[in-house]
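Write out the 3D structure for:
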Amino acid sequence: MAEKFINARGLQCPGPIVELFKVAKAADSGDIITIEVTDCGFSKDINAWCKKTGNELVSINEIDGIIHAVIKKS
């Protein structure tokens, strides 16, 4: 199991999801992907993306305007 990090701060929709898609596509099952985003619409987008792709949203929180999401590749 590998851990991957994406800094998507400053990107607007659909940028963060596009970056996540690229990393997830290359990741192996069980890999953990952490992404940091400043786009306020990302929280809704990531929930929909995980449901659509079957990946697991392990956690999501916002600290000082930065959304931190942890996804486990299915």
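The two ends are 12 Å apart (CA to CA).
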